[in-house]
């Protein structure tokens, strides 16, 4: 191989490397569906959620796409909004509207993970199956009311 051919091949590889790295990063974009009964009622919760994602390295517009659906306080809208999120093929649904949003999300899909912040009785409300059901995909984070 002559010197000119070697340098041409080397230059091509060096120029292609950043494009390959960008393609790999593009494949790692997370898509989160955020289903809320009324986002305006608790903006601090939503901002805390986004800050937690940023702390974990997920930044909206860089490696994270958020799909928001807000029922604006009308619980009858939740099932249709949950179905929209499923149709968008999000990776996970975050139910930010308590048990009603979690139940709507659970009824819309059997394959997507569903995360909800808190509810008084997740099993009783139907947002989470009994603990003996190991095939469950809905998960809640218990909240405490300590003062």
Any overview of this molecule?
This protein is an alpha/beta fold. The chain has 5 helices and 5 strands; from the N terminus they run αβαβαβαβαβ. The protein has helices at residues 3-26, 43-55, 78-87, 98-108, 122-125; strands at residues 30-36, 64-70, 92-95, 114-116, 138-140. It has a 5-stranded parallel β-sheet. The radius of gyration is 21 Å and the shape is globular. Mean pLDDT is 75; it is low at 130-147.
Secondary structure topology:
Elements: H1 3-26, E1 30-36, H2 43-55, E2 64-70, H3 78-87, E3 92-95, H4 98-108, E4 114-116, H5 122-125, E5 138-140
Parallel strand pairs: 1-2, 1-3, 3-4, 4-5
Helix pairs in contact: 3-4
* Count of individual helical segments: 5
For the largest sheet, list the strands in their spatial order. 2-1-3-4-5
Global morphology: globular
Rg over C-alpha atoms, rounded to the nearest angstrom: 21 Å
Main beta sheet strand tally, sense and closure: 5 strands, parallel
Low-confidence stretches at least 5 residues in length (pLDDT < 50)?
130-147
Structural class: alpha/beta
Give, in order, the helices and strands.
HEHEHEHEHE
Termini separation: 76 Å
Helix content: 40-55%
Number of strands: 5
Mean pLDDT: 75
Beta-strand percentage range? 15-25%
Which descriptors would you attach to this protein?
single chain; 147 residues; five-stranded parallel sheet; 5 helices
């Amino acid at each position: 191989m002559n010197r000119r051919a070697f340098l041409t091949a080397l230059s091509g590889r060096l120029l292609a490397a950043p494009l390959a790295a960008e393609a790999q990063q593009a494949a790692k974009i997370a898509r989160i569906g955020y289903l809320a009964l009324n986002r305006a009622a608790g903006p601090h919760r939503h901002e805390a959620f986004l800050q937690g994602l940023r702390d974990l390295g997920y930044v909206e517009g860089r490696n994270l796409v958020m799909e928001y659906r807000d029922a604006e306080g009308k619980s009858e809208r939740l099932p249709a909004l949950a179905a929209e999120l499923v149709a968008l093929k999000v990776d996970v649904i975050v139910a930010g509207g308590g048990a009603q949003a979690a139940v709507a999300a659970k009824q819309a899909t059997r394959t997507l993970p569903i995360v909800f912040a808190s509810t008084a009785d997740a099993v009783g409300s139907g947002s989470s199956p009994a603990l003996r059901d190991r095939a469950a995909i809905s998960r809640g984070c218990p909240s405490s009311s300590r003062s």
